[in-house]
């Protein structure tokens, strides 16, 4: 009979997510994770297969809780401008209220891993490209509803929105004032014609 693992797998993924978020992928070794989980290396590999696989699981866990998840739930009839405004406002709130100033785990991973040719780099590149593709779809829907001009460059606007998300998350690592982050985000959204006054 196979001996059951002596730890909570879901709790282990949560711990790995927080460790990678704070210290980066390369700064989170299997040895360090095993020590924090109080398991052997063999138990680690039996549970997750590899550090790369655990990174993917941790990233998936992280993406389930970010403010941007609201964009994935949008339907063709959902107004884009107020939704984007609320999402960015929430990004600023969440980032500013992180006492450790970790920014965004996904953005941190992009900065760390995209320059190399590795499995985690491929995973985070796919996440980034998927986010841009989704934003392009949302912009296209807004064009079809005449919320945005028909001449709008859907791909270009999607790239610009994604760029603002990356910028705000990066700024939050050294700016912890929510109002300052929101000033940056709201001016950027307004410049793109995407800002909508909303009750917060």
Approximately how much beta-strand content do the residues carry? under 5%
- Supply the CATH superfamily name of the largest domain: Tetracycline Repressor, domain 2
Task: Give the distance, in angstroms, between the N- and C-terminal Cα atoms.
Answer: 56 Å
| Cα-based radius of gyration, to the nearest Å | 19 Å
CATH C-level name of the largest domain: Mainly Alpha
* SSE series: HHHHHHHHHH
Please tally the β strands and state the result.
Answer: 0
Tell me the number of helical segments per DSSP (H or I, 4 or more residues long). 10
Give the structural class. Answer: mainly alpha
CATH architectural group of the largest domain? Orthogonal Bundle
- The CATH topology of the largest domain corresponds to Tetracycline Repressor, domain 2
What's the average pLDDT?
93
Number of domains: 2
Q: Approximately how much helix is present in the residues?
A: 55-70%
Shape: elongated
Low-confidence stretches: 1-5
Largest sheet: none
